[in-house]
Amino acid sequence: MSLTPKDAQAIFDQSFAPWVRALDLSITSISPTGATLHMPITPDLTRMGDVLSGQALAALADTAMVFACAGLFGEMKPVATTNLEVQFLRAGQGAAILCEATVVKPGRQLIFTRARLRATPSGKDIATATATFYLA
After folding, report:
1. Band (31; pLDDT cuts 50, 70, 90)
2. Tally of CB atoms within 10 A around 47
3. What is the rounded CA–CA span in Å between residue 124 and residue 89?
4. Deepest in the core among 42, 64, 71, 107, taking most CB within 10 A?
């Protein structure tokens, strides 16, 4: 069983909290090894100096890594974030952010993931993240 980006998008649109849906995330790819999400940079997500807020980047990374887990399973299963670490490399500026999340090591109850966040159109890395999820 596998999820398509369209299936994953429907799950996101119907099941995630309203404040996460307000990030206007699009799931552009999903597979057993990971998922890629797109987030437009809008005035609602920026702070002083037109820099994307770190909180928005952390939420994007966490959500992308949740979908990487869903891609691994071929369906959305309940997972709980047990830790999330984000390393901010440079200011998030541009039109959008692409977040490529991968499953590093799946276990019976813990799933280790990694994410790379890049600004578009520059293609510059702006953050990386790691998270561990508990399979509930």
Report:
1. very high
2. 12
3. 10
4. 64
pTM for this model (two decimals): 0.95
Homologous superfamily of the 5-135 domain (CATH):
Hotdog Thioesterase (3.10.129.10)
Can you tell me the distance from the alpha carbon of 1 to that of 15, in angstroms, rounded to the nearest whole number?
Answer: 20
Element (H, E) at 87: strand 79-88
Compute φ and ψ for 116, nearest 5 degrees: -120, 125
> Sheet containing 110-120: which strands, arranged edge to edge?
26-31, 34-40, 96-106, 110-120, 125-135, 79-88
Nearest CA among 84, 71, 95 for reference residue 2: 71
Report how far apart, in Å, the C-alpha atoms of 132 and of each of 84, 97, 107 are: 7, 22, 10
Confidence of residue 2 (pLDDT cuts 50, 70, 90): confident
Domain boundaries, the chain: 5-135
Q: What is the DSSP string of 15-81?
A: HS-HHHHTT--EEEEEETTEEEEEEE--GGGEETTTEEPHHHHHHHHHHHHHHHHHHHHTS---EEE
